Each structure stands twice: as structure tokens, then as C-alpha cells.
Amino acid sequence: GISRAAYTTFSPAFIAANMLNDMLVAYVSRGIMPHETAMRLIGSIKGLADDPIMQAFRLSGGYQQRFFGRTGEELYKGLALYEGNVLNSQTSIMRVVKDALPRVGEAGEQAPRMALFKRELNKSLPNWRNMTPEEIAATPAARAAAADAVELTINFARGGWLIKSLNPFMIFLNAGMEGMKLPFRSLRDNPATRMRLAGAGVAVAGIQAYNMSYPEFFDISDDRRRGSVLFMLPSKEKDITGRNKPNYLTVIPRTRTF
Predict the structure, then answer these.
(1) CA-to-CA distance for 15 and 135, rounded, in angstroms?
(2) Considering the entire predicted model, what is its pTM?
(3) Which of 57, 83, 161, 182 is the most buried (most CB within 10 A)?
(4) Bridge-based pairing state of the strands 229-232 and 85-88
(5) pLDDT tens for residues 63-117?
(6) Region label for 125, one of left (φ > 0), alpha (ψ between -120 and 50) or beta (otherwise)
């Protein structure tokens, strides 16, 4: 069979869709605007050394319970050691190419979490800019902000033993179960979510009503119509029966690509 990594970690379509969906979840649940996530994504791409927020986020324990990223064992395999000293990181061209997509996915996954982390620091630790990342991470405010940020999107550490036992055999099982619970937890814990979710519901209903005004909308496959956010456009072609062919713009694609 095909490795699940082909559908997820190394799939550009999955990575792009995952970023867009996380941005939507971050906005609805905690009001993190897309431009805030985008700014954190740019900061992640620049690198850890130039980003005190990323450094403090990791030191505070926020850089965990994620889908993308390597474990300690995987990092160890990429090092050449002699008497306990790192000689090189074995950074061949093939490894750089292989790691490129997972790094982009990792940055996109962490961007909304770090945006929330920064916003919470601005509220509870307003002088953080005058502190080192180590000093920030040592404060209760930073640890609370990091714990909050982990729960912004799917926390992959959550899940019962049965679901986690079945997850290796059913792709996305644990993610699907935790994703299903996430809106209800957000509605319970964040009252402002209710207003944002209501606004998103009204917007989706309006988009759906507009799309349904095009008869060819129903010729689009069910998984695309129900799993994506799309806008119908005037048809430019007809099929062999003379019916208009669907012409549409996909704003948020479906996450699953199989």
C-alpha cells in the first residue's frame, strides 16, 4: 500500500489545505485573524535564531502535540557523532529536498498557535519584549499561554486508548475524532466563539444559497461540495448533452486528498 506520508507529510495539497483549515479554526475559536497567522508563518520561515517568540514558545512547552516535525529519535539519526560531539548534521541535498515539505507543514501548523501565544503574552506579560526567551519561558504567564496555544488546533496527544490503538490502521481516525470535539470545547470555554461561529454559519449559508443558484453546482462531486469552501463562477463550457459544466473557485480545499 501507499504510505500515509504520501497523503499527508509529503503532500503539498494536504499541507496547503491544512494551513487554511487551521487558520479558519483559529479565527472562529479564538479570533486569531489570518494576517496574524501569516505574520507568524513568515517569522517561522526566517528561523529560530531570529525569532524570540518562537524560542519562548518552544521553551514554554508549546511546541508539542503536533502532526508535523521530527521526534528526538529521528533528530538523532540525522547527526554524525564522535565521543558525544556533533560532527555534522548530514545535510545532503537529498535530505534538504526531503525535509522541505515537512518543514513548511510544521511552520504552517505552529503559526496560529504562536500567534495566540504572542497575543496572550501581550495581555499577561506586556514587558516581554525586554526579556530574553529564557526569562519569558520561566514565567507562569508564558507557560499558561503555551498550554492554551496547544489546544487552539487539534491536540494530537488527546484521545482514548481505543482510538489511538486503531489510528495506525485507519488514517486520520484520531485527528477526525479530536477535530469533531474541538468546536464543542471551544464553544464551552470561549463565549466569544459563539458569535464568531454564528457569523461563519451565516456566511456559509449565504455562499451555499448563491452556489445553489447554479444548476451545475450539483454536478460537482459530493466530497468537494461538502468538504470545501467554493464559489461558483459563470460556466464557460458545455458537456456533450448541452448542460453547463461547473466552473468554480475553491477558497478552502478539502483536507483529505484520497
Answers:
(1) 33
(2) 0.75
(3) 57
(4) unpaired
(5) 765 545 554 444 445 544 444 454 455 555 655 556 777 778 888 888 999 999 9
(6) beta
